[in-house]
Amino acid sequence: MTRQPYPPASRDGLVEDLHGTPVPDPYRWLEDPGDPATKSWLAEEEQLFTAEMGALPGREGFKARIAELLRSGSVGAPVWRGERRFFMRRTPEQEHAVLYTVDPDGTEQALLDPMALDPTGLTTLDSWQPDKEGRLLAYQVSVGGDEESSLYLMDVALGHRIEGPIDRCRYSPVAWLPGGEAFYYVRRLPSTEVPEGEEQFHRRVYLHRVGTSTEDDVLIFGEHMEKTNYYGVAVSRDGRWLQISASRGTAPRNDLWVADLSASSLSSPELVVVQEDVDAQSALHFGRDGRLYVFTDRDAPRGRICVTDPATPQFEHWRDLIPQDPEAVLSDFAILDDLDRPVMLVGWTRHAISEISIHDLGTGERVGEVPTPGLGTIGGISERPEGGHEAWFGYTDNTTPPSIQRYDARTGETTLWAASPGAVEVPAVDTAQVVYRSADGSEVHMLVISKPGTEGPRPTILYGYGGFGISMTPGYSASILTWVESGGAYAIAQLRGGGEQGEEWHRAGMLANKQNVYDDLHAAAEHLIATGVTTPSQLAISGGSNGGLLVGAALTQRPELYAAVACSAPLLDMVRYELFGLGATWNVEYGSAEKPDEFAWLYAYSPYHRVREGVSYPATLFTVFQSDTRVHPLHAWKMCAALQHAQAGDRPILLRNETEVGHGARAVSKTVELAADQLTFLAHHTGLAS
């Protein structure tokens, strides 16, 4: 076989001894993006990518259809403050969604348009939170995909910025106190106060008073605690109760405290432990009826809702209101109390399909269910903060752009509140939910989406994630619809490590159990082949972030099973992943190479270390983002060089290295370009004619 003319990449003889195991790392020099050798190699890889992709047919057709389907736009659920509401909407022509407000008199105005802030499209609106009266708005923006959010304050009526920027606010919650004069928030320590390399960590909870310098902010919480802790903070609607949560990185457990602000000062709240050093996740909601509602997976891996008195928030006082379901996973709830019989709406997912049940608020008795538009995904049930008889929720499925539905508990009816603003012609698809068995006999669910009437083996993309308790639920996707409309099949496997079956399902695919996730993917591929959906020469796999790790492991473990791979923003060097980006916050999911037993798990599947010379690997496209501060692109750089060196077959190994974008949100036009490249590459190497 003739190899591709790959850019030269020197192989160093570096070998480290880790816990008695020799670990080679021939491309460590690629970890330094500022090294002239790295820059030169990346420039040559870009030339190779451009030349290879330019020779492939069908890209313009894919690009046009993806762009057309994305002209559906999007719409978000209303956030109410009295008779004023806030919501997000993206029209067909817009690159980013815009934050709007509707005044009590019905007048709509745009509050925050990322393109107005920055016409280049590189600025993203990361989060926003109105105060309890709807007069002030806290919002966070970042530039160039780095997700380094700066916090600002706006006067809603005037539409003017009144404070900011406050830097180091990445992933910061904002908990307003009544009156809008102060809020609690989370901020990292300055880089000058932390060890080198730990600038992304060391968060603290502060109290900020509007109109004062951040130098006068009061430190509330977080000193002398784990450096990788994330903190949550919230204040009850009446301003009486403060809750603070702490989780070590992305661990599926948290510590939780509450303080009665009527009995202690805002700047020195007397925190009482709700749970500490408990292997469970819990969150609190202080009800308008004076009760404390506890959303928890403690002793209930599929979730339950308990009640207690706010004065006695500890576990021994909890009483089941909504017990764990034997099959469905609890997702969220809302309380509607302006009724003769107040109710709680409870959101569930059953094998990743959403439903909402209705329960008596006092007893928890199930009294009905909320009509939903179809078999799809419900995103968040919201109510008016002051109570009422209405609830709103987002809805989408494989062929339905996002919409907002309104449920009226007085009539029992669900009606369309707001549709995505663009009119698009969505192709018809058939969706089947299938069940297959993994290597150890575990049953795994998978959605298979196809063009109606299609029979026989066909080019297929198998997608998975399998980590962090994240569920793969149905949703509108321009890329999936474009692929299926072109005659391909698209399969989404609900692998272990996800949250589709609750926390036990998550833990069955993390730490020492991570290989289960890869086994589940291989078994999904074998099922698709055995049932005639596809063949190995027509099968591609695709994944991003943790899903990039998934497909990286898959292509090294079973290279003969897959024809092509799209690997985006991946973790691939699992021996050194903790040293870069946010890696240190994920050792609770993967394990740490510093510990001998955990190093053994990681090294056993680390894709970069599993590459072997003389193997015919699938055609592989790595897509990475230069401003990614979560997963450093060095993972893909090193893996790409290793595969290009080792490849015995004639299938190409390519790198798409994009600048000024990151791991998260991006302009629509950049989304279109990326998706078109991925589909074009996979179509060519699986035989799909676009």
From TrEMBL:
Residues 1-25 are annotated as: Disordered. InterPro entries: AB_hydrolase_fold (IPR029058), Pept_S9_AS (IPR002471), Pept_S9A_N (IPR023302), Peptidase_S9_cat (IPR001375), Peptidase_S9A (IPR002470), Prolyl_oligopep/macrocyclase (IPR051167). It catalyses: Hydrolysis of Pro-|-Xaa >> Ala-|-Xaa in oligopeptides. Residues 476-687 form the Peptidase S9 prolyl oligopeptidase catalytic domain. GO terms for cellular component: cytosol. Its EC number is 3.4.21.26. One of its GO terms (biological process) is proteolysis. PROSITE patterns: PRO_ENDOPEP_SER (PS00708). One of its GO terms (molecular function) is serine-type endopeptidase activity. Keywords: Hydrolase, Protease, Serine protease. Coiled coil: none annotated. It is an enzyme of class 3 (hydrolase). It comes from the Bacteria. Residues 7-418 form the Peptidase S9A N-terminal domain. Belongs to the peptidase S9A family. This is prolyl oligopeptidase. The lineage of its organism: Bacteria, Bacillati, Actinomycetota, Actinomycetes, Streptosporangiales.
